[in-house]
Design goal:
The protein has four helices and no strands. By secondary structure, it is mainly α. It is elongated, with a radius of gyration of 14 Å. The chain crosses the membrane at residues 7-25, 31-52, 59-77.
């Protein structure tokens, strides 16, 4: 069964939708970006679990590769997103 692979690609898609939503909104929203990053990280963990359990199909590899590609593009085009999240978390705690 490809349960972890499907959940992984679903969370990756949800994270990309959140990043797209932040681009559409006029103001910057830290909670949306934070949820996007958390969604990406959980998606990667589920993809690694799918690889460890040797699930059928290539979906687990597509999810893992897309994580690195999307993070590269986020870093390339919006390099201060990570610093904003870290600063926001630091100010909360």
């Amino acid at each position: 069964m490809k349960k972890f692979s499907v959940f992984s690609i679903t969370l990756m898609t949800f994270g990309m939708l959140l990043f797209g939503l932040n681009r559409i909104i006029d103001s910057y929203s830290e909670p949306i970006i934070l949820l996007g990053y958390i969604s990406f990280l959980i998606g990667v963990v589920l993809s690694i679990i799918a690889i460890a359990r040797r699930e059928d199909g290539r979906l687990k590899f597509i999810s893992l590769i897309s994580f690195f590609v999307v993070l590269f593009f986020i870093t390339w085009f919006e390099s201060f997103q990570v610093l904003r999240i870290i600063t926001w978390l630091k100010n909360i705690y």
